[in-house]
């Protein structure tokens, strides 16, 4: 029997489980839905379109604000996804707002890394594209890069803003946030080494390394090509290996995203909020506020060392399900990070969960 989860179908028996979906290699490859993801997600909504089962997306990807990503996912997947249901690799960066709110910070990566940080409340953030444009000749290869034209356009667009920021090159960068995958590794590694080795003042002498944060540490991810692609973890290895050769002290950094246990704690808190706001009336909410609503939280992922490792480390109430539609393609369970269950697709995973729970 189904247990509706909408205000209009109040029933005392609520779902005592929630689901976290990985995106790349489980729900999508590139922009294409895979593994029966459309059908699987539709089963989590009632006939009226109201959310029946609390679920969210827990991805190490990113580069756009959560509200934009929610809109894009809604379009690609044909269901209404709320911004609160989208947790990206960089989402935990907002916890650092108080520390760097008014400090000059640099944001790296594809998409709109500076817009992501501004939306989190950081007030003095520059993308690495814009930051680099304040330093003539900082990238000796820029003349060979055909996207310099685009950078030039951006630069013209922001001339007014640049006038009000005339002191950028003498303003100390207080932290660097790698929000999403670097597009131009050679320029970004160069500029990051400049910032990090000088204490935030490229072109100057050696200084104390400012804090460096990565949104995730995925060595590889599935994407649309046949074999896996190098991810942010590969970029981190490149930055670290080079920095450690040119600087007396080893690179210090923090990586967020899965498998960091913080991410799973945060996902649990968000799922609880979804569960509370989705409807049992004020009385039920008051009574339940401090209780633990979930007997089981399911993590459905394709990457054993990231998704499954993370869910295993998070422990109770997490239950890990590994699909074969992405990084993992094995026949048996993964040897080092065995999942609680291995299935072919996300649709199989949701079928299993709903059969067991409803
Ligand atoms: O860049 C995205 C990739 O690192 C992983 O995405 O959704 O599989 O966590 P996802
Ligand atoms: Mg994945």
From TrEMBL:
The record's section on InterPro entries has: CDP-alcohol_PTase-I, HAD-like_sf, HAD-SF_hydro_IIA, HAD-SF_hydro_IIA_CECR5, HAD_sf
Which is one Gene Ontology cellular component term of this protein? mitochondrion
SUPFAM superfamilies according to UniProt: HAD-like
Task: Give UniProt keywords alphabetically.
Answer: Hydrolase
Q: Looking at the record's lineage, which domain of life comes first?
A: Eukaryota
Q: GO annotations under biological process? A: glycerophospholipid biosynthetic process
Question: Which GO MF terms does the UniProt record name?
Answer: hydrolase activity
Q: Which Pfam families match?
A: Hydrolase_6, Hydrolase_like
Name the record gives this protein: HAD-superfamily hydrolase
Q: What is the native source organism of this protein?
A: Macleaya cordata
Q: What is the lineage of its organism?
A: Eukaryota, Viridiplantae, Streptophyta, Embryophyta, Tracheophyta
